[in-house]
């Protein structure tokens, strides 16, 4: 049995919960109270090297980082979610967008809206005085405009005829964009793509 070390408000954890639901894979959920610093223990570090969630145990194997987990699940349990060889580079490029551009814009911006600034600063590893919310807003707008241009011409990010793990990787925080006080009507192609993902069999919403 898979065990997902999870928190219901984490967008990165949501990516993994969503993908497990889409592929119909059973798992056990272990709530990790990161606000109470329950992840900052030697025991949890044996599962997750940087004490991060999500983390996944699959038999004797322990994995951390949402994108590594998504790729592990796809390779071992749902290969149909991997791009064909001709598009695998595009799939990995959009996974990288999730891990870099989205993780450095929309993800921290949303964090400043759902917890107080002191807590946001702690999770971002900076002092509260260095929280640059206007900078986050500018970076988020730039990322969303580029994503919207891509999705205006492609149903799925990797340019395939079906969704791949790249779509789930990017969707995790784009599903929560309104929690960052973003008006998504300004990005119609992203909104249409979000609707396509919501229509996939097995879909579960954030918080489920």
From TrEMBL:
Q: Which PROSITE patterns match?
A: GST_CTER, GST_NTER
Recorded hits in InterPro entries, A to Z, give:
Glutathione-S-Trfase_C-like (IPR010987), Glutathione-S-Trfase_C_sf (IPR036282), Glutathione_S-Trfase (IPR040079), Glutathione_S-Trfase_N (IPR004045), GST_C (IPR004046), Thioredoxin-like_sf (IPR036249)
What region holds the GST N-terminal domain?
Answer: 1-81
Pfam families in UniProt: GST_C (PF00043), GST_N (PF02798)
Q: Where is the GST C-terminal domain?
A: 84-208
Spell out the family assignment given in the record's similarity comment: Belongs to the GST superfamily.
Name listed for the protein in its UniProt record: Glutathione S-transferase family protein
- Highest lineage ranks of the organism? Bacteria, Pseudomonadati, Pseudomonadota, Betaproteobacteria, Burkholderiales
């Amino acid at each position: 049995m898979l065990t997902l070390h999870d928190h219901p408000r984490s967008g990165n954890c949501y990516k993994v919960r969503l993908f497990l639901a889409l592929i119909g894979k059973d798992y056990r959920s272990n709530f990790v109270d990161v606000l109470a610093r329950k992840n900052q223990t030697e025991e949890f570090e044996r599962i997750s090297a940087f004490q991060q969630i999500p983390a996944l145990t699959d038999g004797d194997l322990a994995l951390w980082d949402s994108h590594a987990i998504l790729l592990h699940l796809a390779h071992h349990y749902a290969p149909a979610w991997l791009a064909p060889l001709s598009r695998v580079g595009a799939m990995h490029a959009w996974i990288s967008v999730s891990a870099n551009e989205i993780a450095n814009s929309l993800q921290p911006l949303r964090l400043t809206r759902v917890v107080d600034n002191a807590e946001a600063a702690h999770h971002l590893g900076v002092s509260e005085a260095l929280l640059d919310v206007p900078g986050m807003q500018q970076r988020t707008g730039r990322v969303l405009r580029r994503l919207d241009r891509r999705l205006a011409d492609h149903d799925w990010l990797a340019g395939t005829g079906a969704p791949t793990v790249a779509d789930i990787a990017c969707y995790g925080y784009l599903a929560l964009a309104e929690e960052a006080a973003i008006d998504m009507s300004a990005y119609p192609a992203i909104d249409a793509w979000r609707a396509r993902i919501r229509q996939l069999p097995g879909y579960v919403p954030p918080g489920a």
